[in-house]
Amino acid sequence: MRNMDVRQRFTLFAVTVAAAPLLVGGCTADQREAAKPGHAKPAAAPSVTLTPADRAKDVPISAEVGAAASGGKVTAVKLTDDKGRPVPAQPREDGSSWVPARPLENSRTYTAEVTVTGDSGRTTTQKTTFTTSAKSTRPAVTSNLYLTDNQTYGTAMPVVVGFDPPIPKEARADVQRRLFVKTDPPQPGTWSWDADGKQAEYRAPDFWKPGTKISVRSGLEGLPIGKEAVGDTDHTATAKVGRQVSLDIDNGTKQMSVYQDGKLIRRIPVSLGKPSTPSSSGTMVIMEKFDRTTFDTRGDPNGGYVVDVDDAQRLTWGGEFIHSAPWSEGEQGANNTSHGCTNVSAEAAHWLMGITKVGDLVTVKGTEVELDQGNGFTAWNVSWDQFAKGSALPVPPGLKPTPSATPHPGSVAGGSAPAPAPSRSNTGG
């Protein structure tokens, strides 16, 4: 999935239409008659409070139509621009506001017409007209959605949004409110922020079910962020979850176990990072796949080389990969010789490329160092309770993990939200 103290606030505009008895003459006999049983007092009409306020100016193009109803429910919302053209919008799940399907345009006037219907059937309709701000001259926070439209991912793929510069703590709640995720079938989850605000990840308590459709919108264009910045653009994507594959890498045995749908399908000898450049132990996710790429470690303390590698799969922003390493095949299964990567044979690396997808779970255990949270897609590197604590907004109480909160790599998936990434490196080795 932390309040934006500096976010522009708008005065609430409330119009309450209440039915009042019309008294003509006010004779005593009529008053007694009205008090008799069987003459019910007319039900009061509902009321509605709208935001932005009527005639508000300099409204951010990320604005939503807030409609707080009293004595009834919102039954119709119509948003139009200054040429009378309708603007599509969808309600939030809690009904607190209607979110335009795309950012509003700068320096344009919009009218929202909202109807509220009470239990008695009486209705109240209220309008508010507001004008959006001119195009902002403040610097933009660059955001990147690490989910590509029409792609198929592994069952552990979190929805990830990266930010440059990082989002300050006081702004994260407002940013998170503009990160939308829908899944079919429904598998509700939450967002969680890394400590420095460079990355927010979204997942459910358990793995996605194979075949799940994930629709995401990072609706940040024009959103005030902190004191000086605004969001850069909206990102949208709809992707699908494929079959379940996971990799379990054990430094003790120097073996990788490959599971598909919970069944072991192959063991592969590996060579991990040598003591001076150890591999990270933790639960990761395959982030990228390259048929061929270049590792350049000339800027690293223990590096200094440039090498082309085949069949490489990224595990961390810091440059840990699974890749083909024909030069270390004699050591694989026995000794660690790499600069932090998982070395496998050329044949095994090519086979893995045909089996895995971005979003497949990878667990490494028994090495000298632990994986840093946020160094890659690390949503599964902590328990659900720990993950949920990273949300800038309250987590729905119904979201609870299964008894096995920390997944085993061989478990079957399924169960009960462009900036360069932080510290991204192709150092590898």
Automatic annotation (TrEMBL):
Active-site residues, record numbering mapped to chain: 323, 341
GO CC entries: extracellular region
Feature: compositional bias, Pro residues: 394-406
Signal peptide from the UniProt entry: none
Pathway noted in the entry: Cell wall biogenesis; peptidoglycan biosynthesis
Protein name: L,D-transpeptidase catalytic domain
Magnesium is among the record's keywords: no
Organism: Micromonospora auratinigra
UniProt feature, compositional bias: Basic and acidic residues: 79-95
Gene Ontology MF terms in the entry: acyltransferase activity; peptidoglycan L,D-transpeptidase activity
Residues covered by the L,D-TPase catalytic domain: 245-365
Superkingdom of this protein's organism: Bacteria
Lineage of origin: Bacteria, Bacillati, Actinomycetota, Actinomycetes, Micromonosporales
InterPro entries for this protein: Big_10 (IPR041280), LD-transpeptidase (IPR050979), LD_TPept_cat_dom (IPR005490), Transpep_catalytic_dom (IPR038063)
Region of interest called Disordered, as start-end residue ranges on this chain: 78-102, 390-429
Keywords, in A-Z order: Acyltransferase, Cell shape, Cell wall biogenesis/degradation, Peptidoglycan synthesis, Transferase
PROSITE patterns in the cross-refs: LD_TPASE, PROKAR_LIPOPROTEIN
Positions with biased composition (Low complexity): 409-429
Gene Ontology biological process: cell wall organization; peptidoglycan-protein cross-linking; regulation of cell shape
Record bears the keyword Cell wall biogenesis/degradation: yes
